[in-house]
Design brief:
By secondary structure, the protein is an alpha+beta fold. The chain contains six helices and six strands; from the N terminus they run ββαββαββαααα. It has helices at 32-40, 83-89, 127-133, 138-141, 154-161, 174-177, and strands at 12-15, 29-30, 44-56, 59-69, 103-107, 122-126. The strands form two sheets. A four-stranded mixed sheet has the order 2-1-4-3. The radius of gyration is 21 Å and the shape is elongated. The model has no long low-confidence stretch (mean pLDDT 87).
Length: 185
């Protein structure tokens, strides 16, 4: 029996020149078309390949499963202040009750009381907790975040992102994603 695999189901893991993923969450993946284009433009090295071949009249090659950039890209030092990054910093859970559904964000010190929309004043919160806290101070309602809000580093976000792997991890990617896990004896 022949199983047909679509190239669309074969993204390439993109590593920096030091063989670390450009990003962990979201995982740095390129479509097969972008990977092939980068190979042809000599911008990347192929580290690992899928068994699937692509063909043209004058060309044939296996689809790359892992590629590394030829030139090192210096990672951003300070992550952007986005809703997604706040959720990632807080591990996608409400900082008041621990729920993981219906997340929004809350100003610990409400804006109506002078609180700013900054890393140090915003936490992930589920909608029920956010509604319950409303525009009150934590001490007034006895609702304190489990973790004080802080300005994370890119390293903090990468570490948190490793706890939320994508739905599909190709076997050839695993050696490059989990270098810091404890090895089995």
């Amino acid at each position: 029996m022949t199983i047909h695999v679509s190239p669309e189901s074969c993204p390439a893991l993109v590593l920096n020149a030091d063989f670390r993923p450009l990003s962990y969450y979201p995982l740095s993946l390129w479509s097969w078309q972008d990977a092939i284009k980068a190979v042809c433009l000599d911008r990347v090295n192929i580290v690992s390949e899928y068994d699937l071949k692509i063909h043209s009249p004058s060309f044939e090659m296996n689809l790359p499963s892992v590629i590394s950039l030829r030139d090192y890209i210096k990672p951003a030092r300070h992550p952007a202040f986005t809703r997604f990054n706040v959720f990632l910093r807080d591990r996608f859970q409400c900082q008041y009750c621990g729920a993981r559904e219906d997340l929004t964000f809350d100003h610990v010190i409400p804006r109506s009381k002078g609180g700013m929309t900054t890393w140090e004043n915003v936490v992930a919160a589920c909608a029920p907790c956010n509604l319950r806290k409303a525009n009150r101070l934590p001490a007034d309602i006895r609702m304190f975040p489990r973790q004080a809000p802080y300005h994370p580093t890119v390293y903090d976000l990468h570490n948190n992102g490793r706890a939320f792997p994508p739905n599909h991890l190709h076997q050839s990617w695993l050696d490059y994603l989990y270098w810091d896990i404890e090895l089995e004896p």
